[in-house]
Every structure is written in C-alpha cells, then in structure tokens.
C-alpha cells in the first residue's frame, strides 16, 4: 500500500526494484524532499548492483533510454546533450588549445564524446570508479559511449581521489568532474582535499569544471563549494548553470575554477568550438552548446547571485 | 487500482479531486506525455469549479502554497518569482518610461505586483476571464495578489480577446499575456487574430510579451507562434526562456515582439529596474530578475536556435 501514494517508500538499496512503480519510475530522494519527477516506463532493460551502487536502465515512453544510479536519473537520451555539452565546453572553450584533459567520473562516456570534439586535445584520461556504468553505457547508450572510441582516450577504472593524488603536478590543462550527488560514492568529490588534488594536477592557468547541484534546491551546498574553491583556486572562481529537464528542479550547476597563472575569463569563451565544424562529421552537430549560451550560463538569478557573489569578498 | 501506478488516471474535469493521489499531487497532461512532476501535499486548502476551469489550492510540504488550474500547476510560492518577474520585466525594461500597460490573464496578481515596481507606469489594466482565480489568489496568496492594491490598477473581468478588440488603436506601451496552456480557455490567446488585436492596441514601438511554452517540449507550437508573430509584428520578434522548476521540463518561454515604430532591442534592456530601489520598500527585493539574466534569457540552445532563427528569413 505504500506505493499507492504515487512514489515508492524509502527502500534499502538492495530493494531498488521497489523504486520502479509498475508502469512509471519515480525519482525520490532526501536531496529534494517533497517532490518527485516520474517517467513512464516502456521496458526495464537492465538492473544490477555493482560494488558501488544500484544501476538501472529503462526505455521510457517519451525520453528515450534512461540511466538511473541509486534511484537518481543520470541521463536520458532526450536531454543528455545539455549536461554533457555544457560540463565539457564551458571549461574547454575558455582556454586556448587544451591538450591534456582528465575526466573524473563520467563513466557513461558522454563527456569523452564532447572532449573529443576538440582537435587540439592530445590526451584524454578518464577515471571512473564503477565498471558497471561503463559496460551498461556501451551496451545501451552507444551514442553516448561513442566517446570511448577515440584513440586519445585512456580508461582508468578506480577511485578518482586516489588517481588524482598520484598525478604529477601540473599535468592537465583541464579537469572535468562529472560526479553524481554528494550523497553516495561521489561524496569526497565535493570536499576540500579533493579540490586541492585537482589544483595540484592542473598546470598554471588550468581549469576545472565540477558538477555543482541546483540553485533552486541546494544553495547551502553551493555556498560551501564556492567558499572551498575560493580558498583553493587562486585564479577565477565562477558558478554557471544550465537547463536539464530530467534533473531535479530542471537545472544543474557547475563550478568553474582556474589555477594561478595565465588569467581565464570563463564568461567570454576564447576557443569557440562552434566555429569549427570538423567534429560535426563524426559526432553530429552540437545540440545544446553555443558561444552565446556559454556566456549566458554565468548569469544567475538575483537570489543566487547575492549568495555566491558575496563569497567573493 | 489505477492510481497505484503513480499518477492518477485521466479523469473528467468534474472529478478533479481524483487528480490528487492521497498524499501527493501529480501533474499529468497530454501536453507532456510520459512524464509527471509530483509535489507532496500537506493540506488541500481550496477546491472549486468555475465557469472556465477547475481550481485547486494546496499547501505543499516543500514548495509553499500551490495554485492548480485544470490539473496544471500555475504557481508555487517557492518559484513564482522567476515567472512573474521575467514575463513582466523582459518587456518593461526594454522600453523607456512605460506608462500604460495591459495584462491579459494573470488573475493571480503576480504580474501586477511586478508591473507596479515601475514608477513610470500611470495606468495598469488587467483583463482576467475567471473571477475565481482572483478571489482564490487574494485569499491564499496575499504576497502575489498584493498587485491588486496598487491604485493604478483597473480590473476588468471578461474575455481578453473581446476586451482587446474594443481597445482604441495605439493605447498601450506594453501588453503582457499571462495565459495558461493553449489547451483550454487560453487557446485563442495563441492564435493569429489575437496577435493582430494586440498589435493594434499597442502604440508604435510598443511591446508585447506572451507566455510561449517550453523549447524542450513544444518546439512545434513555438515554431507556429514565431511564424505568426513575424507576420504580424513589424518591429522586433524574439524568443526568451527562463527556469521555473515546477513547470514541465523546468523551463518556460516568452515571445517578445514590438510594433513598427521606434526600434526595440529586447536583448539589451535600457530601463534597468534593478538600478532603482524605491520599489523594494513596498514589494521587497527582486528575487530572480536582473539586467544580466534579462540578456541571457535570449540565448537559446542550438536545437532551438536553429528552428527559431530560421524563421527569420
């Protein structure tokens, strides 16, 4: 009877199937209490439990295939472009000629697909903790996992925190942290020691972009992330956001920071990928990103601006 | 048993109570098939059926009070600022010294509240078809309905289409069309004869802003609206969008058009309300709008830009 109220009751991770109400998937979490987004399920394609999390793939009736980790929607075929393109091109289009890029998380391969649009890039490392996410993406989301086909990509399966500690100082031009929410396996990716390792792994004037939650739901988390980043990154520290319909509150934010060195003006992209069409032949056109929406992503609603920009002083 | 799948079955309007699943409200509509946003209900405060639609007000557990018309969320206390401030200040901040403003729909009073922040305004007419919406807003949403307290406001209860036909040519500096979706009583507000009446009611170089759906869900509707507006409005024709978490897909768009006459550059506001703080004393600070987010609202994702801007030629 618990399920007759329209959402599944809170269930232990092992009972993840219970979160699939017959006919519909409802996304509930203590991260966004009192609300739930539901998608109609045509068919459940995969259910598994990795060492780290529950993994579900289903065919939805109107959003294409959907990847769910620990009950939270990670991507749908219909709107994944917004997240993948923005988390990748916001940092990479802000610096000239990125050559070495590290992706932490992002096991689905979508960020790799976007990084590989940049012809200047010579080396792409990815460190994903959960092999099941990679396998499932390759099986069910070939247009996302296509990123793994690029010969510049080296896959490391393991803990991103440990991986970064072993990286020689100043190795990367850009680090992209495509993590899930701070409750679960990604928790450490929102903490100060991790940001310190990122800063160390970047060259002077290198850039990092991390998934940084929703201004509508998580201003207190964002406030902490901004404060931490201002302590650790001595270059630019900016918050950007974008629309992603299947994420809670319909938006997701990003922290963009640069290390001390050549100045980075994130709000004015200097490396306009949309001016170079060679990547379109292999990856298809950009569906979401363009130079205008890049700059617009840094314009925040007044309620968020007051909190985030007050941290600047 | 129909309700055990997480959303109410389709029900006749008279049975609107059925759309409230015990404990949660789920928003389902053929306008966004295969998905539903749900809010946890603390208490149902009002249910009625007007001559035009079903009206429900409930106290949600995390979004404050919520107004629902014909099963569709119109506003929540937590995020109404985004919609009301953007639909109002996008047009009014784009022209110098707006004096006469007409609001079509907008019975809750939120747009009036925002219009009345502009000290240049001398006369605000509002034409709302459904008196029950006004009464319910005054009773349950005093911080929204506060717009009716302004002595510059004249309320007309009636059909906006008929009202506009009777307006002498060139009367208004700005018209704001705060309508519900094109299925239901607002249908005519998305059609060409209505846009013609709006154009006639505006002075040369006057502006209109109409609710114009979501780029993620309704590109075909938007394409039609843009094509109609380009035929009828001989000045600027632009599409803008904003984040509103409780609207389907988390965004809502606006058509902004101007009539032949002094040029209007909607993307660069010339009447920066956020520079004048006198309105803050009576209405409180702007929670969402600022001049930067005004310009950013016109930056569209590539998939929408390709469709909307191709209509320009």
Automatic annotation (TrEMBL), chains A, B:
Family designation: Belongs to the spermidine/spermine synthase family.
Q: Does the keyword Oxidoreductase apply?
A: no
SUPFAM superfamilies registered for this protein in UniProt? S-adenosyl-L-methionine-dependent methyltransferases
Q: Which organism is it from?
A: Fraxinus pennsylvanica
- Single Gene Ontology BP annotation: spermidine biosynthetic process
The record's keywords, sorted A to Z, are: Polyamine biosynthesis, Spermidine biosynthesis, Transferase
One GO term in the molecular function aspect is: spermidine synthase activity
Instruction: Give the reaction(s) catalysed.
Output: S-adenosyl 3-(methylsulfanyl)propylamine + putrescine = S-methyl-5'-thioadenosine + spermidine + H(+)
Q: In which pathway does it act?
A: Amine and polyamine biosynthesis; spermidine biosynthesis; spermidine from putrescine: step 1/1
Q: Where is the active site?
A: 178
Q: What is this protein called?
A: spermidine synthase
Per the UniProt record, which EC number(s) apply here?
Answer: 2.5.1.16
EC top class, as a word: transferase
**Which InterPro entries does the UniProt entry name for this protein?**
PABS, PABS_CS, SAM-dependent_MTases_sf, Spermi_synthase, Spermi_synthase_euk, Spermidine_synt_N, Spermidine_synt_N_sf
PABS domain: residues covered: 22-259
User: GO CC annotation: what is one?
Assistant: cytosol
Q: Does the keyword Aminoacyl-tRNA synthetase apply?
A: no
């Amino acid at each position: 009877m618990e399920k007759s109220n329209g959402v599944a009751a809170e269930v232990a991770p092992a009972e993840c199937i219970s979160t699939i109400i017959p006919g519909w998937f409802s996304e509930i979490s203590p991260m966004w209490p009192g609300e739930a987004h539901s998608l109609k399920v045509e068919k459940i394609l995969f259910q598994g439990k990795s060492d780290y999390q529950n993994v579900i793939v289903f065919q939805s009736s109107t959003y294409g295939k959907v990847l769910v980790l620990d009950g939270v929607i990670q991507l749908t075929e219909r709107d994944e472009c917004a997240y993948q393109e923005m988390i990748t091109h916001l940092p990479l289009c802000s610096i000239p000629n990125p050559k070495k890029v590290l992706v932490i998380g992002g096991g689905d391969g979508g960020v790799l697909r976007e990084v590989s649009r940049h012809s200047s890039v010579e080396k792409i490392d990815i460190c994903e903790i959960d092999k099941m996410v990679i396998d499932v993406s390759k099986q069910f989301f070939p247009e996302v996992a296509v990123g793994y086909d690029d010969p510049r990509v080296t896959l490391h399966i393991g803990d991103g925190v440990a991986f970064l500690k072993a990286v020689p100082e100043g190795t990367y031009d850009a680090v992209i942290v495509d993590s899930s929410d701070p409750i679960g396996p990604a928790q450490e990716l929102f903490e100060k020691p991790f940001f310190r390792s990122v800063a160390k792994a970047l060259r002077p004037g290198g850039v990092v972009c991390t998934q940084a939650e929703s201004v509508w739901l998580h201003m207190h988390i964002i406030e902490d992330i901004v404060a931490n980043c201002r302590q650790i990154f001595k270059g630019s520290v900016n918050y950007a956001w974008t629309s992603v319909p299947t994420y809670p509150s319909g938006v997701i934010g990003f922290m963009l920071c640069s290390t001390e060195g050549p100045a980075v003006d994130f709000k004015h992209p200097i490396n306009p990928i949309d001016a170079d069409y060679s990547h379109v032949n292999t990856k298809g056109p950009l569906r979401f990103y363009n130079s205008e929406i890049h700059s617009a992503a840094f314009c925040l609603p007044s309620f968020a601006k007051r909190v985030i920009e007050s941290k600047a002083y």
